[in-house]
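Weekly puzzle thread! Below is a chain. First person to post its structure in token form gets bragging rights.
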Amino acid sequence: MAVYVLSESIVSPLGIGAKNNFEALIQGQSGIKYHYNTEVSPYPFWGSVVSEKLLCKPASLPLTDRLWDCLSKLEKMIMISVWDAVSEKMSLISHPKTILIFTSTKGNINLINNGLSEDLYLFCIAEKIGKIFHNPNQVLTVSNACVSGLSGILVGKRLIEEQFYDHAIIVGGDIFSEFTYSGFTSFKAISPIPCRPFDSKRQGITLGEAASAIVLGNEYSEIALSGGSSSNDANHISGPSRTGEGLKLAIREALNQAQISKNELGFISLHGTGTIFNDEMECQALNGLGLENIPAHSLKGYYGHTLGAAGVLESAISIQMIRHGKSLPSRGFEENGTTLSFHVEKEAKELKKFSILKTASGFGGCNVALVFEKANHPIQVSRSIFQKITEQVAFDVEILPGEVYYQGNRIYSQKFIGNSDQWLTQAYRTLTPGYLKFFKMDNLCKLGMLAIELLFKNNSIFEKYLPSEVALLFANRSSSLDTDLAHQACLNKAGNYYPSPAIFVYTLPNIIMGEIAIKYGITGENLFLVLPQLDEKNLMQQVQITFSQSSAKLIIIGWVELLADNFHCKLGFIEKTR
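Winning reply:
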């Protein structure tokens, strides 16, 4: 079974609607402007910011003006994007065989100055989307750093192929905020000019905001999503692999699944942030796979880096390229600035081959690659036959305040006096051989690392598999809010506007998977979900689709929740059986 793209939409500074955005790009327009907004930065900055004037309630949206006015800016962008994508398929969105998937890195993080509230929980935004559009299913929230959008699309594709759903609506959204701008500034990653991906004069990233939605379905349409895969660098939590090995793994698997050779590939839409390390890594990956002569671009010069929205937005533009038979140049590129050359497109051209590879990479070492192609007839995509999983997860390790359990037996008990960091550190010193990097981690990662060390200390199953055959599937309720609040506390200190990057890098929940991948050399698939509570049914669906449509043979599955002095971790593994 193949999965098809039924529609796509974009809300960005360039307007509303994928077609309108594509036409603006063909004309060379960019959403990046020079701004001065003291709520974001005490200094002027370049950014791609959506005008509030664009965010009027669609006339046919079943929501009162009063409720519309209660939505945040991000929520309005998301609602408009979804509504535009399904406007010609109204009955689809509320159908029980339709799954909604929300992808974001930080959600309503611009509201964090108001203190901890429901608005900051990613799953609350997801639930609001489902409620407004009367969808009967739990909305899935994917938060996998900058690959969140592509990860969400990959999840939707697989859920349809495994016949859990007939349709999937993936919507990605992130906001331009003081929180993220200050964090990337602390990394010295912000460009003082509009970003110029892959160019010899590039100076870093430009941030942006957007929302974008893509509707996938199992009925034939002119564009197919024929391949997809994810991987981990197992290299560094904030820097990409210097050799591009992780990205190469994801690309190779995606092309194999799509049954497309490099000679059949027409275009590549890269992540292309404009930083020296990211651009160099992508250059190495393309050259390592023999893809250096295929036309490629980055869309960051038009939209900036829109974080959790980027993968959906840039996929929507790739789809528009196929629909119109035209390719787009990489804005800001003049002269190659990577050590190895590759074909960065400088001008709009006719698209000669109607298949596009879309890639993304992010903090935590995560990578995702997807293949979109024109479908002149129904496409058959081969996949392994896999027996459906029905059993519950066997969580071997459980950690609660004051107690640690292994296979139901209490192996550690120490009175908890309301200090998560102190208690986790003491438990770690007592129960494991020790890993010095542990003591530099945030508390969420400490919780997960303690659990994984206990799991592997007491079981040798991991040694049976290749690094690429091990997948990581984690979830929690509060994302990285514990560290988010610490980052914001630094911002609120007078004279200390830019906090340490050592704090900011942990303001993503998937970083725990990156830390585990680095420690144990795991390069397989990885996915982080944010759910209202531990939901084994949804987790087991992800186990099934991962086993069925990837090279994974062992999945480490976990619930890793921590906020202040409340924490709970359950960790186990599942082996593939045929």
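Puzzle host: Confirmed. Bonus trivia for everyone else. The mean pLDDT is 94.
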